[in-house]
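All the exercises in this workshop are built on plain-text protein records. A record pairs a protein's sequence with a compact description of its fold. The structure tokens are whole numbers drawn from a learned vocabulary of backbone shapes. Once this layout is familiar, the rest of the handout is easier to follow. An example says more than a description, so a record of this kind follows.
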Amino acid sequence: MAKLKVGIFSLLLVILLSIFFVVLYQEELPVNSLAYLSGHGRFRGKNMLFEIVEFWHNKRESSTSPQNTKTDVTSGRDFVTKPKSSPEDTPIPMLSLKAFQRLPQWDFDDIYNQDSPPKPNTCPQSLRKSKDEVFQKAFLPNIRLFMHRYNFNMKEWNRLSHFNNPFGFMQMKYDEVWSAVKLIPKPIQPLLLPKPGGDGCVHCAVVGSGGILYGSKMGAEIDAHDYVFRMNAAVIKGYEEDVGNKTSVYVHTSFSITQSPIIFSPYGYRSAPHDEGIKYVLIPEGLRDFHWLKALIKGEKISDSDFQNENPRAYYSGQYNMSRFYVLHQDFMRYVRNRFLKSGYLNDDIWSIVRPTNGAFTLFLALHTCDTVSAYGFMTDNYAQFSNYYAEKQSKRHSKQH
């Protein structure tokens, strides 16, 4: 099936079993690799690792906190529980990734900022009304989704500096991050609202790039949703019958929005979606994303980082508007990893380059902003019958070949 309906938690498990979890940070990946952009590919080479998500086979293991074993912060051989401290108006001493041989576990690791509850939900089909006990125990309906200058201060910086990016600011400099964050206004409204004249529910489609969509003729069904989420190389032209042509929310990193047009140019991809009124969501996966964000908001070229002299606004085809631009909060991304997508590789020395894919973050963003979610183009059990991407019309992937 090209479509999976995310109506209850048990179906969500099926979808997430199909999402690759281990992703090397994209600056570590060769620019000629197609696989890293969406997580649907099969990573190859000694630094290319992947793991199909094993989503809560053991309820107890997934829902309880890790054992609190105290160790020296600098050794990082096991878990740590006590945070670094500093005067409230100064940054804590910078923590180094190399100091930890596995993901450090702090005693506040599973504590997250939450926003005030929105007005009561009147949608009878809403996921928030699920009766699944495991889902309700893990799900935080008011988790803080987006960062802005008014929810960022030195106390927050010091707390988040205990977590590696994109889950925090470990090994980053305060001034470089703050110079971008101080420009982010508070969102004036929620990401999505029910459509006027509708049933009071927010109905969403999340469209991945999996080859299962090629020939599916799901386009009209996708576009019939109130809102459509896409990410990375969202190739649409020439594939409308299968994937639709509407994009309401586009999720990206600075790397994916700049490299997708290069890597997917053979498939006709020229730029990120730019529908009238589209909303953009940035995943701040590293320092270069804050450099990107600063230049984007100020309308300048980037003066430093991997994108030196690039003009970020050129990549949004005239649709950039800060009132429709959102930046994912580190707490939200850590919550997704900790409560839903925790990988065994986090106990390995490669822990710092392990994170959910852009597609996984997009799916969970939809689950926290929509009442009903349908997922298209994600992996299913028969993924080997299809190409990595629907844009690869003639390519078929077989497990023995890769």
